[in-house]
Amino acid sequence: MSTTIDIQNYLPHRAPLLMVDLILSLDAHSVDTTFLIKEDNIFVDNGVFIEAGLIENTAQTCSSIVGQKYFVDEEGDVDENASVIGFISALKNVKIHALPKVGDTIKTKSTLVSKFVGDDYTLCTMSCQSLLEEKILLECEINLFIQKTISVAQ
After folding, report:
1. N or C: which end of the chain has fewer CB within 10 A?
2. What's the structural domain count of the chain?
3. Range of 19's domain?
């Protein structure tokens, strides 16, 4: 997929916890996203996007690969009623080289290492990298658990 996509089509996150703006490319094995660091972001401290923000940005980027299964049907239509819950089950080999500042736009790239799909859940391991232009900010491997939940009508 080569056109930009609104990340909200693939994740349950909404402001103020949404840490990805657009999906630049997405297929079954990799994803590239962008995110503009704004001053009012909950992970900004003294003008700097802190480590927890980089990790959450990475997790949300990774989730979009798995999110395709739950949020978009076979015809490519978005399921407005999809409901999932996800957890970071492990972070491995985390290296944070630098932190971006307010006004910076970071690009995050993730590649699927392995995936196990159950009836209503998915476990996956992703290799990740966040960059500011060509400068590497973060490198890590992340394990995610994502499960479809049942929506309860109110």
Report:
1. C
2. 1
3. 5-148
